[in-house]
């Protein structure tokens, strides 16, 4: 589904990703953790081409993003992304936010598009907000709308870049519960950057620990939290869990 082969990423002289080798199977839920600045967000932003790589190969759904012939729009149709700060269209209603991309990109029938959008709003518990403007919603509600908008494109994979970090604490659980439902879908591949260790323990198949642009540990979730092997992972867990 997603495979990094000797991937290197630079910002000028800054070496952001170093020799990344990682494979995420279809239907798998993988959580990336690590200190700020470790390269987690950069890594997942390369998966849908928001950040280009400079060396190596990144295979997504059979297409190599390092190949200039790869159609990035085709990649993005199948790889959705949920950001920290929602990125909803402020001048469109909640319903229109969800319907816009399927209308423009998938050319979906308008009646079907609305039916799917309303079903997704129901799924995230916000059907009654369909005609509201995003500015009238709380941060947690806006993030749930952003998730529904990503799901409307029927992606094969969803990327979450610290989706709860900008939320007030009392709003975090509503978003995490939706993410848990998505992770439980055996057909959906999810790659999540988060500091929510409880969420990681509950839903991740594997945990990736990163620091200084490198993957230092890649382990099954239970094994990682019980016996992290890398000293930096041990120190990180001891700090964040307390």
From TrEMBL:
Domain ABC transporter: from-to ranges: 2-237
GO molecular function annotations of the record: ABC-type amino acid transporter activity; ATP binding; ATP hydrolysis activity
Pfam families from the UniProt entry: ABC_tran
InterPro entries for the chain: AAA+_ATPase (IPR003593), ABC_ATPase_HisP-typ (IPR030679), ABC_transporter-like_ATP-bd (IPR003439), ABC_transporter-like_CS (IPR017871), MetN_ABC_transporter-like (IPR050086), P-loop_NTPase (IPR027417)
Keywords: ATP-binding, Nucleotide-binding, Transport
Family that this chain belongs to: Belongs to the ABC transporter superfamily.
Protein name according to UniProt: Amino acid ABC transporter ATP-binding protein
Organism, as annotated: Weissella diestrammenae
């Amino acid at each position: 589904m997603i495979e990094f082969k000797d991937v290197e990423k630079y910002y000028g002289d800054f070496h952001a990703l170093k020799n990344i080798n990682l494979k995420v199977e279809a239907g798998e839920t993988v959580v990336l953790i690590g200190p700020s600045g470790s390269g987690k967000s950069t890594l997942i932003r390369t998966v849908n081409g928001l950040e280009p790589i400079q060396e190596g190969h990144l295979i997504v759904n059979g297409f190599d993003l390092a190949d200039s012939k790869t159609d990035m729009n085709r990649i993005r149709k199948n790889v959705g992304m949920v950001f920290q700060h929602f990125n909803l269209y402020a001048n469109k209603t909640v319903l229109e936010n969800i319907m816009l991309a399927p209308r423009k990109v998938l050319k979906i029938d308008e009646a079907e598009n609305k039916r799917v959008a309303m079903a997704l709003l129901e799924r995230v518990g916000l059907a009654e907000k369909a005609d509201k403007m995003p500015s009238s919603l709380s941060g947690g509600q806006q993030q749930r709308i952003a998730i529904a908008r990503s799901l409307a494109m029927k992606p094969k994979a969803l990327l979450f870049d610290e989706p709860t970090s900008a939320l007030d604490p009392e709003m975090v659980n509503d978003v995490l519960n939706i993410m848990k439902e998505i992770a439980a879908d055996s057909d959906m591949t999810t790659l999540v950057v988060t500091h929510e260790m409880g969420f990681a323990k509950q839903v991740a198949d594997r945990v990736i620990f990163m620091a200084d642009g490198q993957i230092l540990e890649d382990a099954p979730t239970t094994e990682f939290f019980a016996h992290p092997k890398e000293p930096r992972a041990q120190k990180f867990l001891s700090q964040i869990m307390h």
